[in-house]
Design goal:
The complex is a heterodimer of chains A (270) and B (326).
Chain A: H1 12-29, H2 34-52, H3 59-90, H4 93-98, H5 103-133, H6 142-169, H7 173-187, H8 202-205, H9 209-221, H10 231-264
Chain B: E1 7-20, E2 26-40, E3 45-49, H1 56-63, E4 71-76, E5 79-80, H2 85-88, E6 92-95, H3 108-118, H4 123-137, H5 152-164, E7 170-174, H6 182-197, E8 201-205, H7 209-215, E9 218-223, E10 226-232, H8 233-239, E11 244-250, H9 253-260, E12 265-273, E13 276-283, H10 290-297, E14 307-310, H11 313-325
Parallel strand pairs in B: 3-8, 3-9, 6-7, 7-8
Antiparallel strand pairs in B: 1-2, 1-4, 4-5, 9-10, 11-13, 11-14, 12-13
Helix pairs in contact in B: 3-4, 4-5
Classes of the chains: A mainly alpha (270), B alpha/beta (326).
The complex binds adenosine-5'-triphosphate and magnesium ion.
């Protein structure tokens, strides 16, 4: 028992776990989430299958990549920022920041949950495409395919952390995210390889970790894939490096952002 | 040597800048606090009163690490709130209350569990402690219902439960009994007193004068961002002219002069009351009575109504706030 005057030490692990738990409880309590997490992947899978039907031996992988990324992207990236936006709407951002756990662990928990539900979305797409085609897709290197799939999630999550900080920073983050959404989705190669975009957009794309990871994923699953000239190995290096930069940045940014909102006094705005 | 203060502030100012409009924005500047000096001692219930918009919530948020002062210094439990908020957070509790600030789609118990984890309550203690605070605020029966089904008062109780979950040394209560039925409000005041006997210091804002009078050892009155008075209830009564109040009704200014010369009169306030003037006299001795006032005015008004009563905190509050407005 702690008498007043003997505060508890915060456990970052338990805080992160609590955040995962809260995410799950809120997910279960709110059936509208079924749409992005369960129904959308099915639709994406069906549409993508029809789109790439008959385009070479690896068309199934194309379908899975396109639709899987679409679903995972929505879950992981969008969901992470969105949850912080919800904290503003509920008025829970103030009590959460007032608690001694640094907010970044709350965000981390949500991202973990979003990664899991994003992977479920990816698995649903896979199942839909396999069911529709009646065959397992030909993948150049299945182990690499799965590994890179997970890796893409990590890079998406790193962008999600930064995005969450942005939601703490301002209540207009949602508005700005909605504008930037499509550009980001296309610009990082979620929809089709970035190499199809005008050359001058590539440097912008390379700022985002998922761009590198998605290119690596395609190298790993489609033989003869023509992505960035530097090839698979440097894609992985680039993705690891940019992700690391994002995570370090997130650590720094969260502290600064929190300070900023305490200064301007916009924590309760929504 | 007085004990180390639990809260000590010097010259706290807080300015809010906000923008209006979309393209052609216009900046507005609100000075919510204009130099607040305060001291709260361990184990006391300190009350902060003041009209709407006076800055009570702003000050509460600054002291509880949710807002930084624009200038000035605040030390809470010996910690500089601007410099090391993280060190302070586990040691204080904050109840802002209201309809928001809770996760509506999950139960009260789950809300508490989440915040218990964020406050670092060990798993072995957590569930027991949650049950204990639910009992203390009287939410045990509804604990497993979704918060969205809660009435306003039930949400208020849940806010309170969350505030005391981790046994803070210092508890900030911003209008704790707002929206509570009389019985629940009374139970909440009882809870506040029992927390104090556990050794907790309380910083409380309220609009209910009787609540402040009943609970608080010392009070400050905040008006337009400045402390206009700060004392014990008895001290505040003296400040406004004494603990006896006599109310009478007159018609003319000359009648006020007649009353002014009565023995024991500390202060006279006048207020229009229909065609009449309402005269409020304050006195600290026993010389001034309803009788002496009646005798002084009686010949002019045979049907005069004079009422003698104890000066209550509401009188003090209205006097001081009106004085500030004038
Ligand atoms: N985030 C904000 N942005 C701009 N102005 C603000 C903000 N918060 C408070 N204010 C202004 O600061 C002043 C003090 O507000 P505050 O909420 O502290 O008053 P209060 O004493 O708690 O009032 P009440 O009794 O109504 O709760 C008001 O003029 C208010 O408009
Ligand atoms: Mg207020």
């Amino acid at each position: 028992m702690n008498a007043p005057g003997h505060p508890f030490a915060v456990s970052r692990f338990r805080s992160t776990a609590a955040s995962v738990r809260l995410s799950v409880l809120q997910f279960v309590a709110d059936p509208q989430w079924l749409i992005p997490s369960m129904i959308a992947p099915v639709i994406f899978g069906i549409v993508a299958y029809q789109l790439v039907l008959g385009s070479g031996p690896y068309f199934l992988v194309y379908a899975i990549l396109g639709a899987g990324m679409m679903s995972m992207w929505g879950q992981t990236l969008y969901g992470s920022g969105w949850a912080t936006g919800q904290d503003r709407v509920f008025g829970t951002l103030e009590p959460t920041l007032q608690a001694p756990t640094p907010y970044v662990y709350v965000v981390l928990g949500r991202i973990l949950w979003n990664v899991v539900s994003g992977l479920v979305g990816g698995a649903i797409v896979y199942a839909v495409v396999v069911a529709e085609s009646g065959q397992l897709p030909a993948v150049a290197n299945p182990v690499l395919f799965v590994a890179m799939f997970l890796f893409v999630m990590v890079t998406l999550a790193s962008v999600g952390v930064i995005l969450s900080a942005f939601y703490v920073y301002t209540r207009f983050a949602g508005f700005i995210q909605n504008i930037g959404e499509f550009a980001f989705y296309v610009g990082t190669g979620c929809m089709f390889p970035v190499i199809f975009l005008p050359w001058w957009t590539n440097p912008i794309s390379l700022v985002f970790p998922p761009t590198w990871a998605l290119d690596a994923l395609r190298y790993g699953s489609i033989p003869g894939y023509q992505g960035f000239a530097w090839g698979f190995g440097w894609d992985v290096v680039g993705a690891v490096a940019t992700t690391a930069v994002y995570l370090v940045l997130a650590g720094l940014v969260f502290h600064r952002v929190e300070r900023h909102v305490l200064e301007v006094g916009t924590l309760a705005d929504y | 040597m007085p004990p180390d203060p639990v809260i000590e502030t010097r010259g706290i100012r807080r300015v809010f800048e906000s923008r209006k409009g979309f393209l052609f924005t216009e900046k507005t500047r609100t000075e919510a606090l204009r130099g607040v000096d305060l001291r709260v001692d361990p184990g006391e219930i300190f009350g902060l009163l003041g009209p709407n918009g006076a800055g009570k919530t702003t000050l509460t948020k600054i002291l509880s690490t949710l807002l930084l002062p624009t200038s000035g210094e605040a030390h809470v439990l010996g910690i500089d709130v601007a410099r090391d908020p993280q060190a302070l957070r586990p040691r204080i509790g904050l109840v802002l209350g209201g309809e928001r600030g809770l996760y509506n789609r999950i139960s009260a118990r789950e809300n508490l569990r989440y915040f218990a984890d964020l406050f670092g309550l060990p798993a072995s203690l957590r569930d027991r402690r949650i049950q204990e605070v639910l009992d203390r605020v009287g939410l045990t029966e509804a604990a497993d219902r979704r918060v969205e089904e809660y009435s306003r008062g039930m949400k208020q109780k849940l806010h309170l439960a969350r505030g005391i979950l981790h046994r803070p040394e210092l508890l900030f209560l911003d209008e704790p009994t707002i929206g509570l039925d009389p019985k629940s409000a009374r139970e909440t005041r009882k809870l506040v007193r029992s927390l104090v006997s556990d050794g907790v210091t309380i910083f409380l804002t309220t609009h209910y004068m009787f609540e402040a009078e009943e609970l608080c050892q010392r009070l400050a009155i905040l008006s337009k961002g400045k402390i206009v008075a700060r004392d014990t209830v008895a001290g505040l009564r003296r400040l406004v002219g004494g603990d006896t109040t006599v109310e009478a009704y007159g018609f003319e200014d000359s009648e006020i002069d007649r009353l002014r010369h009565l023995p024991g009169v500390g202060r006279i306030l006048t207020e229009e009351f229909g065609p009449r003037l309402r005269l409020t006299l304050r006195s600290s001795g026993s010389e001034l009575t309803a009788e002496s006032v009646r005798a002084a005015l009686g010949s002019a008004h045979p049907d005069l109504m004079v009422r003698e009563r104890r000066t209550v905190l509401e009188d003090v509050y209205l006097d001081l706030v009106e004085e500030e407005a004038a």
